[in-house]
Specification:
about 300 residues; mainly alpha; MetI-like fold; two-stranded antiparallel ribbon; 14 helices; 2 strands; about 0% strand
């Protein structure tokens, strides 16, 4: 036995195992980088070049470095358009959260066998064109349509003057972008451990307190992601204000379209686009900070 023990003691200690991390060649990123270069960086560069150019005539541009286009953005009329756009997009995002979060919560928390069917019903509108979905609301909100007749039959015809108002724009915004909020929130709720909520209520926490301190905090990344997916395209909306608002309410997106297509003032339109992207970058940075903080909290 002593010889066996001595032999065991003489054996060298086993080297620690190293975790294998595969290394992939850098050229595998070439297709995605090329796509990013051609369809994002190149158009952004062209837009930046136009934004500092100078209008020399109708649809004619003199390439130089002229910052007067950006100074024109500070005109009270343009500031008012930016402000109205942010207010409408913010209100639309808030309404989307108030509707979408309870729907996602209900699907994740209480549905068992029909979750896939519920999600399918939410995604179905995306199977049709955005333009067709918006046009459909012209029929629904028509003062002479079926819904208006229903309101008239119950004596509420005076309360159905919705079309070509800010209410119609709000309805169109919420309807078209609601799935973009429900899906990320639902994904966050599905990853959540519901026993934490049960434990909090067993320890005496009220349902709203348990929701605020546990459910809302754990699903905050999904909520912020969905809010950005809704808010950013709302600020650049062109179709909904033009169709449902009748062109009475100027969004930055519709203003940019008019400047490019009707006035043919490409430098000013490019400057407006760059300014809008600059404003939206602030919200993206806030999202990155929140996501990073949440990741560190979760770790």
């Amino acid at each position: 036995m002593s010889d066996v023990g001595a032999a065991v003691e003489q054996q060298p200690a086993a080297a620690p195992r190293r975790s294998f991390k595969p290394r992939y060649p850098a050229w595998l990123t070439a297709p995605s980088f090329l796509y990013y270069l051609v369809f994002f960086l190149a158009p952004m560069g062209i837009l930046a070049a136009f934004s500092v150019a100078r209008q020399s005539g109708f649809a004619s541009v003199a390439y130089t470095v002229d910052w007067s286009q950006f100074r024109q953005i500070w005109d009270p009329v343009e500031i008012k358009i930016f402000w109205h756009t942010l207010v409408m997009a913010g209100a639309g995002t808030a309404a989307t959260i108030l509707i979408g979060y309870p729907v996602a919560y209900w699907i994740s928390r209480y549905l068992t066998s029909y979750k896939s069917m519920a999600l399918l019903l939410i995604v179905v509108p995306f199977w049709t064109s955005f333009l067709i979905r918006t046009y459909s609301w012209l029929i629904i909100l028509d003062p002479q349509g079926y819904v208006a007749r229903l309101f008239k039959d119950v004596g509420l015809s005076d309360h159905f003057n919705v079309l070509y108002t800010w209410k119609a724009i709000g309805i169109g915004l919420v309807y078209n972008y609601l799935p973009l909020l429900i899906l990320p929130v639902y994904a966050s709720l599905e990853r959540m451990d519901w026993t934490l909520v049960d434990a909090a209520t067993d320890l005496g926490a009220k349902p709203f307190t348990a929701f605020r301190q546990i459910t809302l905090r754990l699903t905050l990344p999904g909520l912020v992601t969905g809010s950005l997916l809704v808010f950013i395209p709302m600020t650049g909306e062109y179709v909904i204000p033009s169709l449902l608002g009748g062109g009475k309410f100027d969004f930055v997106g519709s203003t940019i379209g008019d400047v490019f297509l009707e006035a043919a003032n490409w430098p000013f339109g490019s400057a407006l686009s760059m300014a809008l992207m600059g404003v939206l970058t602030v919200f993206v940075v806030v999202y990155i900070l929140v996501a990073t903080r949440e990741e560190q909290f979760g770790a």
